[in-house]
Amino acid sequence: MSRTSLCIFATTVLLLQGAALPAFAQLPTGWKAHDLKRPAPPVVTPGESNLPLKAPSDAIILFDGKDLSNWRSKNGGKAKWKVVDGVMESVPKSGYVFSKQKFGDCQLHVEWASPANVKGKSQQRGNSGVFLMELFEVQVLDCYNNPTYSDGNAGSIYGQYPPLVNASRKPGEWQSYDIVFKRPRFDGDKLVSPAMLTVLHNGVLIQNHSKAFGPTAWMVHDEYDPLITEGSLGLQDHGNPVRYRNIWIRPLTDPPRPESKEEYPKEHQLSDEMKNRLVGQYEGFSIEKRGDSLFCVMADRPLEMVPVSETEFVFRKTAGSLIFTQTDDGQLDEAYLMLDAARRKVSTVRKPAPE
Ligand code: MG
After folding, report:
1. Which one of 3, 29, 65, 223 is at 20 to 30 Å from 39 when CA atoms are compared?
2. C-alpha 19 to ligand 1 mean position (Å)
3. Per residue in 306-347, pLDDT tens?
4. What's the gap in Å between 332 CA and the centre of ligand 1?
5. Which CATH superfamily is domain 24-251 in?
6. Is the per-residue pLDDT at 7 higher than 50?
7. 190 CA to centre of ligand 1 in angstroms
8. Cα separation of 250 and 107, whole Å?
9. Ligand 1 centroid vs 129 CA: distance in angstroms?
């Protein structure tokens, strides 16, 4: 075989091997969008209704039954849904409505009811949707005795995750979604963590930290856009007169981190000789050497000691400190343990002299 034909042969083998690979990338759930073989969520009867659920004091009330002043249409104009008897209702062909305010991480409460007058089937019955950041749809659908594709059920992250169970109430009855939403995080163009949704439907958990693998869409899977990190809350007009009431939201922020590095001072290199001098039984605690580290052991709880000087220590993972005093001739004298939320001195202890 000539060098040229060997080269062609090798290329052909590689191409054939390539052809043997799957022709599509596996989706995170293992299921393609709207696969009818995907099992239907089991039906669960929710407990007795507690609706309307009063908003906590720090919630932003997006709809309290009066008007649509907190809402807009897609192009920014007036929201075109109607408000009747304290309820807002999707007007077919009027378009989605969006909150004027944008949100990222949030806790959201929405109450909705599909039409009591049942019409259509599958996706044509009481279809609407709650969109987080205008991108991620928690499906609204009359799923009471209404089979449809699994990832299109009420409470699905549409086209991606079916609800864990079908906790639907009857058509016309008020239902609730309580949604905890964590927005996607990016480092530059790179997705660091996807949007995450936890959803309770009528008080029943139906999405448990489901990681959206992109904005939701019909049939296709869209890509994340790193420029979008917040957005309006959207309610879908899907041609059915679905009603909404009592919509409130609590924007969430990351918990505070320490303002300074005071809690984590620079570590001092303690000599082995000093470590060995400190080991022993004290009143109320002992000091043990485990590997290269010293541990202050109290009530069987080992607290790793981080030296910040020859005689001062903080604990690696617990707020507090342990400080030794020395006599004029350099002998260890007393130990001061500071350990509780108030960071006050709780004891003065002395290492008993060895027998
Ligand atoms: Mg929908």
Report:
1. 223
2. 38
3. 999 999 999 999 988 899 888 888 888 888 888 765 444 445
4. 72
5. Exo-inulinase; domain 1 (2.60.120.560)
6. no
7. 29
8. 5
9. 4
SS3 286: strand
Spatial distance between the Cα atoms of 176 and 9, rounded to a whole number of angstroms: 63
The answer to whether the beta carbons of residues 316 and 303 sit under 8 Å apart is yes
With 0-12 CB in 10 A as exposed, 13-18 as middle and 19+ as buried, what is 109?
Answer: buried
Within 218-292, strands assigned E span 231-235, 243-251, 280-281, 286-290
- Ligand 1 centre from 123 Cα, in Å? 8
How many Å lie between the centroid of ligand 1 and the Cα of residue 109? Answer: 17
Residue 110 CA, ligand 1 centroid: distance in Å: 15
pTM of the shown model: 0.82
Residue 15 has pLDDT above 50, yes or no: no
Examine the pLDDT at 246 and tell me if it is beyond 90: yes
Give the whole-angstrom CA distance, residue 309 versus residue 324.
10
Ligand 1 centre distance from Cα of residue 23 (Å): 30
CA 206, 209, 214, 215 torsion-angle sign: positive
What residues contact 320, with CB distance under 8 A and at least 6 apart?
303, 314, 337, 338, 339, 340, 343
How far, in Å, from the CA of 239 to the mean position of ligand 1? 10
Could you tell me the distance, in angstroms and rounded to a whole number, from the CA of residue 94 to the centre of ligand 1?
A: 15
| Contact by Cβ (8 Å): 132, 230 | no
Whole-number Å distance, alpha carbon 127 to ligand 1 midpoint, is: 5
Ion ligand 1: residues, CB within 5 A, are 127, 129, 139, 236, 238
**Predicted local distance difference test score (pLDDT) of residue 258:** 79
1 CA to centre of ligand 1 in angstroms: 62
pLDDT at 22: 43
